[in-house]
Design goal:
heterodimer, A: 359 residues, mainly beta, four-stranded antiparallel β-sheet, 50% strand, B: 323 residues, Rossmann fold, five-stranded antiparallel β-sheet, globular
Chain lengths: 359, 323
């Protein structure tokens, strides 16, 4: 791949600011759908993408994309576990979908939006306003948990034993005991949006309304403040073996180390994928690799190794539309990129040998 | 390059029964060919007839940034973000607040949240007031004063139920709280929609188009309203350093009591007009081109707020004059 980040002074094609079209773009399938891409994840062997008109498209390597009309309005959120997907929409519906496109309505909140969803082994959950509903395999009725404010994020831990619910002033952690789910509170002033467990289940991290992340070591509720971002952190992804939490919200990818006893406490983050003052809006790890994709406000996408001395690779050029979704196919053969203006790129990733030749 | 336009957002405030729902239904049913989304409070008045109505819950969040008056409406951040993901382009968004809502967190949301500011812009705050009951409401509820203080437009409704003297009295009282608001008299909210929507009242350009009332200093303290306004004019240019020190300090220490402020300033040795407008401690300011040729230059400022008399505003302003 010949494209790389160019500084502002370097020559650039007319009418084009930033990174120019990449080889990967020329090889890939480009769709101009005109409807904002709201999210993407994997389902079975497919990459599944949600849109602002309620449609869901499935992209499989070697096949044409398949479209399903799921919601009547915006697909606000999605989460998948192995072979099922759950989505929430501004039509108030909470849906479950299988890879063959079979859609089942799990709940209907009427005029209220379904803001957040989560999925794990035998578990699905959604939030609408202050309420979280949790379905457990084998039980027909969901449990309902009420929180002090509107819920900003939902996440199960890797084992499906705990559910983190982020809201104003705290994260409520629901833990499954023999008979019921018990809650505990992880307080920190401000509003907490998207929430995630570290892969080992020892830390909780939220993206805040302020330009910061907040984390807790679950064992003793020790606080981790991760701030200094020029913009809101809209996206994060666990990456590499350390592992690092790669985050958007700056003009490079800020990666916080979560190894050792103290995680990122009193440590500096790793900063990779520097991109000419453009703010990163979406990050996604390249599964099992020490590398991360980052999409930026100007539409460009870089692939950066978790190594501050290596130059990043341009994956998509600057088209002016904020990147809202990046997903890698389960086979790692393709990458999907979507943006706020409805442009989608579905492109084959080169093998390691090809990288070596081209970089 | 592809780009995204900012969608204008009109905030509709006013006490219960003033006629907000009547106005909303008029806006939505009139033949105008525009696509509007309406954000209503779930405890609002009667039904709104539109396919794009979103329930809000008026959640006020304190920002964790050490600024005590920095509150935002968390539900609006979420809802505006969701609306921007829609497939169809909206021409405008209208936010209806409950009668007891403080307009400040709504306005501050557009200053504080970058995503909201990138995709939408605050068009104007429109307050529907009941000509019959406003006098009583102003005495009993500080929210009523705030809604008048923040208003770019006051739709003085139900004027058919009040005699001429009564109307004069209500208008005078509104002017004392907010001298630069535009008052529109109506009987059943039937004002032309272009007097209510698409005003761009929060842009700095509009600060330049000062209303005549803007300059009328009000030193009449007979009325007992809590919220008052004061304005100052100076033909002498101000000193930039002195002004920055005084004004910065003022907002830091008294920002909570200053509801709105606007001004056009001439600084000594600076050719361009400096224009600002703010809500509490949050401020939008910029140089706005040269002064018009051949016209006299003057600095003008207006403050609307509580306890203004305790801030030594006149002394502070006078001390900024370049000697």
């Amino acid at each position: 791949m010949q494209s790389e980040v160019k500084s502002d002074d370097e020559r650039r094609p007319p009418n084009r600011i930033g990174i120019s079209e990449t080889e990967l773009e020329r090889r890939g399938l480009k769709l101009e759908l005109g409807v904002p891409v709201t999210g993407a994840t994997t389902l079975g062997d497919a990459v599944v993408v949600g849109f602002g008109d309620g449609t869901i498209r499935l992209f499989r390597p070697g096949h044409d994309p398949v479209i399903h009309q799921a919601h009547l309005g915006v697909v606000l959120c999605m989460a998948a576990y192995q072979d099922f997907l759950v989505t929430g929409g501004d039509d108030g519906r909470f849906l479950r979908m299988t890879p063959d496109g079979l859609i089942e309505e799990l709940d209907d909140f009427d005029t209220k939006w379904v803001d957040c969803v989560a999925a794990s082994d035998g578990l699905v959950a959604c939030s609408s306003g202050k309420n979280v509903r949790l379905w457990m395999a084998g039980q027909s009725k969901p449990l309902n948990f009420i929180h002090p404010s509107t819920v900003g994020g939902l996440s199960f831990d890797a084992k499906g034993r705990r559910l983190a619910v982020a809201h104003y002033g705290a994260v409520t952690l629901w833990e499954r005991t023999k008979r019921k789910w018990k809650s505990s509170t992880f307080a920190w002033k401000g509003f907490h949006g998207a929430v995630t467990f570290s892969p080992d289940g020892k830390y909780l991290v939220t993206a805040m309304q302020e330009n910061a992340l907040h984390g807790w070591r679950i064992r003793d509720k020790a606080n981790l403040a991760m701030s200094g971002y020029p913009a809101k952190v809209k996206s994060f992804a666990w990456t590499g073996n350390t592992p690092f939490l790669a985050t958007s919200g700056a003009d490079e990818i800020i990666c916080w180390p979560f190894d050792g006893k103290f995680g990122p406490m009193e440590r500096s983050p790793l900063c990779v994928g520097h991109n000419r003052k453009q703010i990163a809006t979406c990050v996604r790890s390249l599964s099992d690799e020490e590398a991360v994709f980052a999409g930026f406000r100007d539409g460009s996408v870089l692939l950066a190794k978790l190594d501050e001395t290596t130059e990043s690779i341009a994956v998509r050029g600057s088209n002016g539309a904020e990147v809202t979704a990046i997903e890698v196919s389960p086979s790692k053969s393709h990458v999907l990129i979507g943006d706020a203006l409805g442009n989608v790129l579905w492109a084959p990733l080169m093998s390691g040998a090809e990288y070596a030749r081209n970089v | 390059m592809q780009s995204i336009e900012q969608v204008p957002v009109t905030v509709l405030t006013g006490f219960l029964g003033a006629g907000k729902t009547t106005l909303l239904n008029r806006i939505l049913t009139e033949q105008h060919g525009h696509r509007y989304a309406v954000i209503v409070n779930e405890f609002g008045e009667e039904g709104i007839d539109n396919d794009l109505v979103v329930d809000a819950d008026e959640e006020v969040f304190e920002m964790n940034n050490g600024c005590i008056c920095c509150t935002v409406r968390g539900d609006l951040i979420r809802i505006l973000g969701g609306l921007m993901k829609r497939a169809d382009q909206l021409d405008a968004i209208i936010i209806e607040t409950t009668g007891l809502a403080d307009p400040a967190p709504v306005a501050q949301t557009f200053f504080m949240d970058q995503d909201v500011a990138d995709r939408t812009k605050l068009d104007a705050i429109v307050t529907v007031a009941d000509a019959v009951h406003l006098n009583t409401q102003l005495g009993e509820h500080h929210e009523a004063e705030e809604q008048i203080a923040f208003a770019d437009v006051v739709l003085l409704n139900k004027t058919d139920l009040v005699d001429a003297d009564g109307l004069e009295g209500v208008e005078t009282r509104i002017r004392k709280i907010n001298p630069y608001t535009k008052i529109i008299r109506t009987a059943h909210c039937e004002a032309p929609l272009d007097n209510i929507l698409g005003l761009d009242a929060f842009s700095l350009d509009r600060v330049l188009e000062v209303e005549p009332d803007f300059l009328e200093s009000d030193h009449d303290h007979e009325h007992d309203d809590d919220v008052k306004s004061v304005s100052f004019v100076s033909e002498t240019p101000l000193d930039l350093d002195k002004f920055e020190t005084w004004f910065g300090n003022l907002l830091r220490t008294h920002g909570q009591d200053i509801l709105r402020s606007k001004g056009i300033i001439e600084f000594l040795g600076v050719d361009e007009r400096y224009v600002f407008q703010g809500v509490h401690m949050l401020m939008d300011a910029s140089p706005m081109g040269n002064w018009p040729e051949g016209k006299s230059r003057s600095s003008r400022m207006v403050f609307i707020g509580r306890n203004l008399e305790s801030m030594n505003l006149l002394e502070g302003f006078e001390a900024c004059k370049a000697k």
